[in-house]
Each structure stands twice: as C-alpha cells, then as structure tokens.
Amino acid sequence: MPAATIVHAACFAVGALVGGGVAVVAGRRQAPIIPIPTLGSPQPVLDVRPGGVTQISTPSTVYAAQQQVLKYGNPGPISDQLVRTAYVAGYDRRLRHPAWTAEHLTLTSLGKSTLESPSSNSESGDRSQSTFAEDSAVPSLFRAKLQDYFKSGYDRGHMVPAADAKISQAAMNETFLLTNIAPQVGVGFNRHYWAYLEDWCRRLTSSFADVYVFTIPLYLPKLDADGKWRVTHEVIGSPPNVSVPTHFAKVVVTSRPSSPSSPDVPEISTGAFVLPNAPIPDEAKLENFVMPVEAVERAAGLTLFSDALKQNSKHICKTTKCEVIVRRFDDAQKRPEMRRAVSAPR
Asked: Which ranges carry the ENPP1-3/EXOG-like endonuclease/phosphodiesterase domain (predicted)?
C-alpha cells in the first residue's frame, strides 16, 4: 500500500479565564459580570487546498475569527500530556483512561546493566509499597475514580507496568496513578497473557540497546449477525464513568548497531500486537496477534512514528523471537495490590 503524505497543521489558542462575579453597587442592581476568556497570541495556520496546494493564513485574520467565535471559551479538545519519571502518557478525558503511553526501556533503566551497577544505598521501587491513587493533575470532573473500579469485575490494568519503573519508589508510584490505568479482564489477560507480553517487551533489552514501547487502548468494531459493524463496550462506575476498551495494542520500536564495523548506523525494528480484552490461552502464539502499525494508528487516531521509519525498519519478529514465556503464579501472593483490590476505596 503506497504511503500517503499527511500535512498536519494546527493553530493553538490558549484561553486564560478571567475571574468575575456579581458586582453590587449601592442604590442600584448591576448585571453579573461574565468572565471573558482571552486568547493567546496568533499562530499561523497552514491550509491545504485541493490539489495539494498549501497556503499560510494571515495570523491576524485567524486570530480575529478566534476572538469572535470563541469569545466565551475554547472547548478543546484538551490533551493532558502527562510527563512522569519513567513514562509519558496522553490522557483521554472522555474515556477516563490513557489514550496512549510511551516508555523507553534499556538495561540501565530496568536495573539490569552489568556496566552500571547501582550503589548499595540507592533507592529502588517496591510495588508492595505502592497504592492506586486518583490523579490530581486532571480536573476532578474528568478523573477516573477509585470507586469506579470497586466490584466492577475488572482489574486496574497498568498501561506502563510497575516492573518497568523500578528506578525509584516515586517512579513506581506514578505507575499506580489512575491516569496510567484502564479496565482489563483479570484472569487470563491482565494477570497472565498481557503480563507475559509486558515481560517480553522488557526482555527485548537483552538484544537491543534501546526499546521504545507504546501501549494503546482500542475500541474496535465487531461484525454483528445482521451484517453491520458496531463498536460496543462497557462503562464502569456508578454513575458510569470509565470506559472498558475492547482491545489493547503494544507497539515496539527497537534500535541496535547494525554491525560492529558501523556502530553509528542503527538497525531499527518495529512491530505491533493487538490483543482482545478477554482471557487468552497460555498456548496462544504471540505472532497470532501481529498487526500492521498503520492499522493501530488508524484505529487509535494516532501517528506513532514516521512513514520513513516504518519503511526503513525490519519487522521485530524477523530480528528476534516473538515468543512469550508463560509464568503462572498465585497473583494474590505475588502481587499485594491484587489483595487490596477487593477492599472498598477510602
């Protein structure tokens, strides 16, 4: 399929809310003062015309239109980009879970480097000391709540695993914020096959110098008996608040020197895996879940990396073994927060 060139043009307007209220003047009544948001400095807009012709709109013209149309406020959409110690996330205020998370894994970041051994008094993360928490970085109206998950039938599934953030206790605690969590089926998925995939991503660091991992909740259509495609999903909470994705994607980009003689020339590998939010048998092959990166981007409405990188990369399953290691264990004993999940939130 030939690559299509997409020109992204954006004009950002920053609204600053001016405080206001009701002014009372002795002897007469005065109408309430409505706060008028002010718009930021004008930004040029790249307009793509038919035939691919581009034209830069005059900032003053665009700014005037913004002032007139958005006089009482700019509805957004707002993208909460959350920069944490071990990851970056984009939070979806409508669905109340991450739109995506991104992380950079290396042997050093995972504490496995033989060249950089941590000092004896260095701090490291202990997941038994972490607790799930609502994220105050997001306005209360759009937050996922602890109560939403209580008796929902779903696990609080990490998008960035706690095991990827052992660099410090603070870093690990950030993975327990609900802005890094989405509802996942527990037995057979979050506690098993999904955990195997997370482990596989970490093990990539033994073969590649740099491993970049994107985790993306998806809502994919299903063909119904009447021949029509529909997207249906559950919403948990009372009142309903947090959407339950139908699928989850892991997209990886890896890098290593192409050869000892050319260490500055990287060999890039990419791959995408899409898993249903449902129990998956341990014996299922990881390659069964391989999807084109473009398919994930289209379903999520995201551009993860450039067409040039995709075209000049090898598939990850050609440069390493795409095979999970099954590790069954008693989650309640190994993962203390699973035991705490059955207790009501405070």
From this structure: 84-311
